[in-house]
Amino acid sequence: MTTCRPGVEEHIQACLASLTLERKVGLLTGASFWSTRPEPSIGLRSMVFSDGPSGVRGVMWDERVPSLNLPSATALAASWDPDLAYRYGAALAAEARDKGVDVVLGPTINLHRSPLGGRSFEAFSEDPLLTAELASGYVRGLQDHGVAATPKHYVANDFETERFTANVQVDERTLRELYLAPFERAVTEAEAWLVMSAYNSVRGTTMTENELLSTPLCAEWGFDGVVVSDWTAVRSTEPSARARQDLVMPGPHGPWGEALVDAIQDGRVPEGAVDEKVRRLLRLAARVGALDTGALDTGALGTGATGTANPPPPINDGPALAREVCAAGMVLLRNNGVLPWPAGGPASVAVIGEHAALSRTQGGGSATVLPEQVSHPLDGLRAALPHSRVEWSRGVPVHEGILALPLASLTDPDSAEPGLRARYLGTDCQELLRENRRAASLVWLGTLPEGTTTVELRTRYRPAETGTMALSVAAAGQIRLLVDGATVLDTDLAPDGTSLGGALFARPTAVVEVAVFEGAELDITVRYGVPEAIAAGRVAAVTVGTPAPDWPVPDGIAAAVATARDAEVAVVVVGTTSRLESEGFDRADLKLPGAQDELVRAVAAANPHTVVVVNAGAPVTMPWRDDVAAVLLSWFGGQEFGHALADVLLGHTEPGGRLPTTWPATEADVPVLATRPEDGVLRYDEGIHIGYRAWARAGRTPAYPFGHGLGYTTWEVSDLNVAALPGQPVRVTVTVANTGHRAGRQVIQAYLSKEGSAVDRPVRWLAGFASVHAEPGTRHQVGLTLPARGFAHWDNGWHTEPGNYTVHLGTDAEHLPLRTRISIL
Question: Can you give the pLDDT at residue 313?
């Protein structure tokens, strides 16, 4: 880590010495849900935290303050491009600084241990090296521009089921070589200023109390930053205070405070431990410009590219970057020649599927932001093909739950502005605040007015047609729904589970039918009694809407087939829903929801030029993959998804992605699936064999291997050369030729293996990669560096087994045509 200038550290020490015990302890618990406590006596302002990792929400989860919605982490990872990850981090820094945010809670660098992980879209990859390279770029992109990054969730938090309480049993070697490795690089190379401790336990000790916070994080890696808890993860006073845990979030209440002061005064916790926590907090404040250090140079603290606490903001290319990342991460899994389309586009296009008009641009949970606008596939294709006939067919029902009432149909009765009037009521129904809101789906994370017990939402709704309307409310708590002054629903909705995530992201729904007449306004009022357990944290969530539409599957398929048969090409957009991929729960299986598989088969039979776009954040099974002309994986593509998709289909941009995670043909083929603890324990018994390593060990063939991706041209790799000098990284060079007719990008991947090893090893493991851009007919020499650690294994320290290793080189984990042996002494 960076050695700090004595002047700055002396200033921090002087600040520390001036504080009483009570003030020092007070700094170690947040002031609110999103901010730390100020201390004006030493020139310390509050620091503001914000959820990431694919956008910066700011303090308010509020449609009135929109945020840039970048593509999901899996989309970024599919680019295999650390430089792009740097620019991604820099864009987040610009957004953060615009919103007054000092600390972004990202990147998420847990591994894709199982494809059933509900939050996989938020993490990068199944491979620790690829994850580490991308994480380092992301962290540097943020911090070079004065905004702190927070790699999370430390450590082995690769599942959602029982994530608050589960105990992960994992051996030391597996922990070091896989799950700790990305955090190590984020600390030792990118010099992350924070790390977030996870909810779960590892080997019997919850992470906020775990020795892993000291060793290896600090003692071996030299981490001098702040360990911030995941929100509500600190549940003890003495054990967590004696550990390397530094900051309890959220505030203002928590298990430290007065209880910690008493523990120190009684000698149960040394005051020196608190001093070190405060010192690290003040160091973070100096780095982000929250501590007045006068004329002292804070450059050696790592405060941005300019060496000052307030570096100039990065250029905010926002939507343009979102569009670029989306295309760079799209993976062309299959193509029989139908893509790219001719420059002018097809004369007619059938666009099919609910996801075509209402795609998923991001995953569910705390990673969710509210963008100013979104380009869905149907939007993007219509904009890009003004002279083509573009027709949409809904296909089969997919989305579940509740769809919020559209803003265009709502009027605030107070202001006559679009939206709803929100009133926040305390005990005895006194009004604490009223405001106009411009959405019918609202979340408050630490932002409910203090003392709120009831949220009242009122609007005038204009129905689009005459008939019976199913009016729905989704919330966890007491709900009273009034229509034109009459109570039509009065019920208590229990949350899904006992966790905060269940109350916010898996809310139950109540439905009532009401008669409506086109153009005749309804006066709708919802009174939501916020449960005390979440109101205490000033947290709530409520949606007013209608159930997701449903219709007979045969009718939907017949209409889609008719539309496809009448078009030159068909684009079917399939995907997952927020009830499948979200924080708070894992997936039950890998199937596409509803009858989407049946829909694809029927459309492909009707039109041989069918392209399927898979709008999912993590693997799904695709039993029809060999029956369609092309399969394009878009992940959760961010707010410019539709425009980026049109760019790729028309060949304006190459689909540049390569799989960061293995995609199976069937769920039964997957070697490692378990995400559900048994008796509170989740055993990582597979050891170092996850992802493509597990597939190779089991001798199974996936649908598409790790690293796979086609692009729009063809390639030839040859002339592998390896230079291995004792004690030096191994240098690999290879000649790469673009043998096609278009410019393109290829990702060259190097894997290692060792036959006859005395230790358990993967069949092969990723050791390095590099990308090359090439014009048609050109040849380039590409170099890769294989670090010494790539050959090492953990056995109470890093050791390199001497002997012969094989370097395998190619374009994915299974297609490795070049190989050579090297000797490591």
Answer: 59
